[in-house]
Design goal:
Helix 17 (377-391) crosses helix 19 and helix 22 (480-496) packs across helix 24. Helix content is 52%, strand content 10%. With 583 residues, the protein is α+β, with helices and mostly antiparallel strands.
């Protein structure tokens, strides 16, 4: 997988403890020998990810995700094996040169190449005489040369054919140019969509440019911002602005702040608040909530201070609550956004807001009071019911109790009455299974041959003794994916004269399907100890499968055979096979 030897790769892996590294990504709690946390690889609320310090592996007992520290970082950070290897080496204090690695062939590679070319074009423009007024505008807004460079801010020119001509010269197809969202085909031919605008690159979670937001700066266009249309590589609801820059800071501070616009992010980041990401002004989605969940345990929402920002805060908080995150809220005075607030009042006052956020229910209570006369019994009743409807979603018992107490004090209602009303709403929320057509989850039926393969692989992953038995007594597994896994285990053992599961994960880190198969096998929850008699039973079952297959093949051959003597020979072969395996 790289120029490094297997021994060097394993030395890098052994330089860190998987528990220490994973705990910088997600909170872990020790239970028995292992540590447990909420799995970041599926929609998980209860800790189902087990991390073993002894074995240096992780396994999710719900979704089957499994691997070592390299595969964890690869899947969590969406990076290659080499990038994960380098990150672990840096953590372990090992200087490593992995040398040149062949780039991965990427789907929609042409679109990424188009954006890379466009970025060079835009950045070059802003550093020429044509970019003077754009830079002056940015400087007046407190965005200096260092920020322009760090955030890759560029400029599209007044001539709306310049980028198109450049891309055509680079031999990109018209189809890909239009698909990229940077070029339009109109009555005048192919033209740039962006012209005479300051260009803010939008990236995916790994930092690759996938879109732009173009901002007017000289009042010549009524549209303040133009954002790239959705393309095969740009899905607004699946991305967060500044994610790739913020992720390490978020994990370090164990806190992430969500904002709405990229100017808010740039302002906060340039003032030292770097654990910030933005929704880019779109409705907050479940996919974005899952990304947020990966960043940090504490989530703060800081949207614009106007009514639209309040509504967006409600929607965002509900998406987060739905996946088990209870966010905190910052509200800004005078309808300000974070960009204007920091410019007006300074970073220290904004930091004070960060240090003293509202709990989500206090914010919702405040929001639900708007335009209501709580001296009016009808308004008060509607207000209480709305608060309880929101409270149903909250699983934090302390926050529930505090909110119930506040509602009781405001309304004068007895706490028990409010709790009873809340309990009724919780009962309504529970899904009801129809009596007429009950849903029955039938257990997956696994025949003894499938079970024998799975169980044998389970113990092969744990014992070189079982690997030796497999080599001596089993020709190959009947099921293709199990056969490939057994072959890799066998190859590793023969090549390196030992077998360690954490090291084996490094060996197959680029084989995603095989990692999934191991996850399935690891989740069998078989007992740790085995007997050779049990292993022989699995071996014999696999042999029996092969014999039955061969007998069935011979029976079909015999049906087609017209020569009596040949039929007799085939029948004798079938008999010998059955006698040999006591069938």
């Amino acid at each position: 997988m790289s120029k490094l030897s297997n021994e060097e790769i394993n030395n890098i892996r052994n330089s860190v403890n998987i528990v220490d590294v994973v705990s910088t990504y997600i909170p872990l709690t020790k239970r028995g020998k292992n540590h447990f946390g909420v799995c970041p690889f599926h929609d998980d609320r209860d800790p189902s990810l087990s991390v073993s310090s002894e074995k240096q592996i992780y396994t999710c007992f719900s979704c089957g995700a499994t691997g070592n520290i390299f595969t964890f970082i690869m899947d969590y950070d969406h990076v290659s094996f080499y990038e994960a290897l380098k990150k672990v080496a840096d953590i372990g204090g090992i200087a490593v040169d992995i040398g040149y690695t062949k780039p991965t062939v990427q789907k929609y590679g042409e679109l990424y190449d188009i954006y890379e070319t466009a970025q060079l074009f835009y950045q070059n423009n802003i550093n020429t005489e044509y970019g003077f007024s754009a830079k002056e505008y940015l400087n007046n807004r407190g965005i200096d040369e260092a920020i322009i460079k760090e955030f890759g801010i560029g400029l599209s020119l007044k001539d709306n054919e310049m980028l198109t001509k450049l891309l055509k010269k680079k031999k990109f197809s018209d189809e890909d140019l239009i698909k990229s969202g940077l070029v339009v085909n109109n009555n005048y031919g192919h033209n740039d969509i962006y012209y005479n605008r300051i260009m803010f690159p939008l990236t995916d979670i790994s930092g690759k440019i996938v879109g732009y937001s173009g901002r007017t700066f000289n009042n010549e266009d009524t549209s303040k911002y133009i954002n790239t249309k959705e393309t095969p590589i740009f899905k607004k609801g699946e991305l967060l602005y500044n994610y790739h820059r913020a992720k390490d800071e978020c994990r370090l501070k164990k806190q992430v702040i969500i904002m709405e616009g990229f100017m808010d992010i740039i302002r906060a980041h340039s003032n030292g608040v770097k654990n910030v990401v933005a929704t880019m002004g779109t409705a907050f989605t479940k996919n974005q909530a899952v990304l947020i969940k990966k960043l940090a345990p504490e989530v703060i929402i800081c949207f614009d201070g106007d009514n639209a920002g309040a509504r967006a805060t409600i929607a965002c908080s509900n998406e987060l609550i739905n996946i088990g995150i209870i966010p905190k809220i910052i509200r800004l005075e005078n309808n300000m956004d974070p960009d204007d607030y920091i410019k007006e009042y300074g970073i220290n006052r904004f930091q004070h807001k960060i240090d003293n956020p509202m709990n989500v229910m206090d914010f919702k209570i405040s929001y639900l009071k708007n335009n209501r006369n709580l001296d009016n019994d009808s308004d008060m009743a509607n207000y209480i019911n709305d608060v309880l409807s929101e409270l149903v979603q909250i699983e934090d018992d302390i926050l529930r109790e505090l909110t119930i107490k506040k509602v009781s004090e405001e309304s004068g209602l007895d706490i028990e009455i409010i709790k009873n009303q809340l309990a009724q709403k919780q009962d309504i929320k529970k899904p009801v299974t129809a009596i007429a057509k009950p849903i029955i989850n039938k257990p997956k039926i696994i025949d003894k041959y499938m079970m024998a393969q799975q169980n044998l692989l389970y113990y092969m992953l744990k014992s070189k003794e079982v690997i030796t038995v497999y080599n001596k007594k089993v020709s190959f597994m009947p099921t293709t994916r199990y056969r490939f896994l057994a072959q890799e285990i066998n190859y590793f053992y023969k090549e390196y004269k030992y077998f360690d599961l954490a090291d084996f994960f490094s060996f197959i880190a680029d084989k995603e399907d095989m990692l999934k198969t191991i996850g399935e096998i690891m989740n069998l929850n078989l007992k740790e100890e085995y007997t050779l008699e049990e292993i022989d039973e699995y071996v014999n079952a696999i042999k029996e499968f092969h014999v039955n297959n061969e007998c069935n093949r011979l029976v079909e051959q015999m049906k087609k055979e017209t020569d009596v003597m040949e039929k007799a020979k085939i029948a004798e072969k079938i008999r010998e096979l059955k006698v040999g395996t006591n069938l």
